[in-house]
Each structure stands twice: as C-alpha cells, then as structure tokens.
Amino acid sequence: MKTSFFTEKAYINGKFVSGKKKFPVVNPANGKTIGSVPDLTVADCKKAIDAAEQTWQFWKETSIGERCKVVRGIFDLINEHKDELAEIMTKECGKPLTESLAEVDYANAFMEWFSEEGKRAYGETIPSLKGDMRLSTIKQSVGVVAAITPWNFPLAMITRKVAPALVAGCTIIVKPASQTPFSALALAKIAELAGLPKGVLQVITSTDSRGIGKELASNPTVRKITFTGSTAVGSTLMAQAAGTVKRLSMELGGNAPFIVFDDADIEKAVQGAIAGKFRNAGQTCVAVNRFYIQEGVYARFAERLTHEVKKLRIGDGMKKNIQIGPLINRAGLEKVQEHLSDAIGKGAIVSCGGNNIKDLFFEPTVLTNVSYDSLIAKEETFGPVCALFSFKTEEQAVTLANDTPFGLAAYFYSSNVYRCQRVAEKIESGMVGINTGMVSNASAPFGGIKQSGLGREGAKQGLEEYLTTKYICYGT
C-alpha cells in the first residue's frame, strides 16, 4: 500500500522511528496484512514523555495566534487529502469508504472548531470587595497530555483530543489502538507538514497496551489523561492516575436506548434507527443498543424497520454501495453471537438476519419479542443487531431507559413538544437525541454520566479540559 501519508513508523520527538520489533495490522474485511508498525516499549514511551515535557516549555509560550494558525493548517491539509485518509481508515478498520469519508470530515471539524475557539480562552476581571486589591484570572495549558484512543473511529477520536490540546498550549502523546495505527500516523505526517514543531505531537504504536497505559497514567510528568474506550479499562487508568492526581477525561462504554412513542413519525423513526444503529456495523459508543417501542406502534415499527434493514448491503468497505462492513475481530463476532443466542433462548424472534455470513461479516439483524432479562438489555452488543422491546407508558419507558449503569447517549421520537422536554430532562444520559439518530457535532459537548465517563469533548467545554484557571491577586 503506497500512499504519501501511509507510514509504517512511529513518531517520537519530530522523527519517524522504527523499533526493534514490529507487529502487523490486518484488514478485517479480508484478513490480509496492510502493513506493520513498531511494537514500542515502555522505555520508548518514557522517551516520548521526556520529549513532550521539554517541548511544552516552548509550546506553551508560543502565541495563541500561531498555535491556532498551525491547527488551521492541519485542517486545510486534511481537506486536501481526505480521500487518501479515508482509504487508509477503511483498510485498517473495515468501515465502508463512504463512512470513512464522513469520519474524515467529522474529525476535521474539530480542527476547524478549535482553531477558532482557541482564541477565546478568556480570563476574567473580578470585582474586589476591598478597595486595595485587584483580582483576575487567566487560562493556561495543563501541560503534557496522554491520549489513548480506540479503533472504531481511528481519526475522529484523535482529532477531538489533539485539536484542543494544541491550541491550549499542551503537548500530546497519542497511543492509538493497535488495530488502527495508520490513521494516527497519517495525522502526524500532516501535522509535521503543517509546521507543528517537533515534540508537540507524538504517536506511540505498541501491542503492550497495559504497560504503555500504566506508564502514561502513572508518570508524574504527564499532567492529563484523555481516554476513549471501555469502562473497565477507563476505571483501571483512573486508579493508576490517582497517585499523581491527574486531570482526566473519560469517554467510556454506553448502552443507548432508542424510544419510539406512539405519537412519533414512524418513517422518520425508522430512518433514525438505521442511522443510530448501523454506522460502522454497530461498533460505535453511541450506537443504539436497546429499542423501546410503545405497544400501539410496535408491530408497525418492527415491520418497517425489518423492511429497511433487509436492504442494507454488507461487504468489503472498499467496494461501491457497501453499507455494512465487518466486525473488527473474532472476539467482537463472538459477543454478537452470544447476545443473539441468549435472546433467542429467552423467546426473541429473528425478523431478519441473524447469520455470520463468512469470516467477520455478520448480517444486519432485527430481533422482536425480546425479553427484558436478555444480555442484550444489559450489555453493549457492539454489533449490527436491533433488539426491540415493548413498553406501555412514558414512565415505564423512562424507567427502562435509565435501568443501566451507563449514560452516554439516548434517543427518542415523539411529536409532542411537552413530552420531548419532559423526557429529555428525565433520561439519565450525557446526550439526548430527539427525533434524530445522530448527535455528534464538534460544536456541542460530547460525553456521558454514570459509568460512561467524565469530562466533555468538543465545544467550549472541550477546550476547558486542557486549561487550568490561575487566580491572580494584586495588592495596592
């Protein structure tokens, strides 16, 4: 695979480096190796941390105008090379090329947003209760940041951490998922081309996720950890970071409900369900996991959803008109199969799909008559399975939606404006989509509550995560 931004080297202190060992990266659509990258060690990680600390002393003093100019330059280059970046993404994670192109745009939206929002890191002048003092605050960068990112959005999950960190004056070390390192390395090449000074952004590739993660979380030089991934891993990182009292941003697991009330526009609800469930074959943190349909419209919704799901085309994401790609690995496939078997064993009916076609490809599936005690009601499936539950009243729907330790995203459909406001306030979730199956936006705060994490990404709140407030008191 020969492209100008495809590189098989890690990026430390402004240099693309090789390690003593390498590991292969496999295309989940065909099982073929697309390249190999350095399998770096904890010692290599420490070198990256030291370089980031030295560079931070310079980068934090660089003017905000210059920092934002560099980030804007990255935005322009990503736009210029979006087709190439999308191809890299599809080959390493399997999502359809149209989805990869959409992700490049979404990822780049963070570069654009923060290249402007960075200029608005305002301080305050505070009225003093005493006449002999002058009080004010300023915003300063947190320091060295470590970002640990997942495979399912190999570019967007990085840019929404890197962009605010850079404009805030932080240096950042990125540890991408071992399944999808090439998007991160391509971003490093683009950043270098845009004039980002060496040591400001570094990309560590490694299969030693535990060792590297522990070093980043416990090293006192690292002032902040930002992580997107499972709740279990996030909890471990939080415990490891506690000894040095780091700033934390955690975007963790979800179990998103999708409620359809009997006053909803069913056709729009079906389209929202398709959008909210099947992006990246259901392998997204905000993917719908539990469909709660009011009894009066249950049969109609199930029929229309099944009809539309049958139309979805599954296959290699590099081929035209493909809408559903493969699952990322065998473990992901086995979890989908486990949830399906459990639901069927408890009375669920397969309306369509339900089969592992070949390798890591699983048919888009609709299950009806699903029991409330099924695994799929409690755990995130992370696959292309729609599980339809029924409910009677609004109060029951809200109770069911909140009956989970997670609270990342939630969706519901209704044409009653009073119900919309009422339910949106009662649902325990960091984000709520009303009459839409898509909530992600660079200008809006993304994040969850409960065991779905803490902190926010995107919007002005996303910039604040990389800044500290310093209070200054002048005596007269």
UniProtKB/TrEMBL annotation:
Keywords: Oxidoreductase. Residues 19-472 form the Aldehyde dehydrogenase domain. It holds the Pfam family Aldedh. It comes from the Bacteria. CDD domains: ALDH_F5_SSADH_GabD. The active site is at 251. NCBIfam families: SSADH. Belongs to the aldehyde dehydrogenase family. This is NAD-dependent succinate-semialdehyde dehydrogenase. It comes from Sphingobacterium bambusae.
